[in-house]
Amino acid sequence: MKIRKAVIPAAGLGTRLLPSTKAMPKEMLPIIDKPTIQYIIEEAVESGIKDIIIVTGKGKKSIEDHFDTSMLLEETLKNKGKITILKEMQSISQLANIHYIRQGVPNGLGHAIWCARNFIGNEPFAVLLGDTLIKDKKPCLKEMIRLFEECQSSIIGVKRVNESELSRYGIVDVMKGNESLLKVRNLVEKPDKGEAPSDLAIFGRYILTPKIFELLEKQERGVGNEIQLTDSLQTLLNYENVYAQIFEGKSYDIGEKLGYLKTIIEFAMEREDLKKDLVEFLKAIVIKKGTAPLE
Q1: DSSP letter string over 181-217?
Q2: What pLDDT, in 10s, does the model give residues 221-238?
Q3: Statement to judge: residues 187 and 293 lie in one domain
Q4: Which residue, of 159, 165, 181, 198, is most buried by count of CB atoms within 10 Å of its CB?
Q5: Which of 25, 224, 7 is nearest to 131 (CA)?
Q6: Which domain holds residue 282?
């Protein structure tokens, strides 16, 4: 079977970025002049997916507004002769067939994905986390979809992380094998220090078979008193093979403050209209701070 649909969980409260996320969804925080979630939807579209469901929650209406048509804005841009930006605004509402469903209570990532079960039906699907950006020569998800067509099994996107970061992620233990696709032996959600089975962290991209919905429905609460997707993937190992793909591209976690700042700077450094002035500005700050004691 082919991957035709994607789920983007975007119902989290964004507590690590408060107070900015009190009224604004973290998925709508801008990376310069484009909200994070638009980059993620563009990755899905570039990977061949056109049907997307975004799982939202209270206070997330701005996500729907962003991908909707804005007749007043478009008419204003047209009247002012701003045709280039007008075309860009029109293209946003035409990116994909985007649907929405509410996660009534923030019960965790696993529950958010379970909320999309009726939209997905009995077919494999992709999951892209709403606060995780990945940049590579070709879309990370596109390569995962290609590999799924070979193995017809669930695939987890993973990356190698430092020992100090292991307790922040779900961690996978894999068997030796094909470097592009490693068979998963075990998964642990946010392990305590010294208990991680490997340095391979789950990072925001999945291809899942519909069996996962059955397991999520029965899943007991885990870390954080939430229904964890990692726990159900562990159970899935009893029924099906699950594989991990190590991606080599650059990943960005905009769900925490320092990661968000780094993301903005790196993206700005790739833009010809910003790079030169930004470099001069950063140099001036480094020189100034380098000659004065940190407060």
Answers
A1: SEEEEEEEESPPTT--S-SEEEEEEEEE-THHHHHHH
A2: 877 778 889 899 999 999
A3: no
A4: 159
A5: 25
A6: 256-295
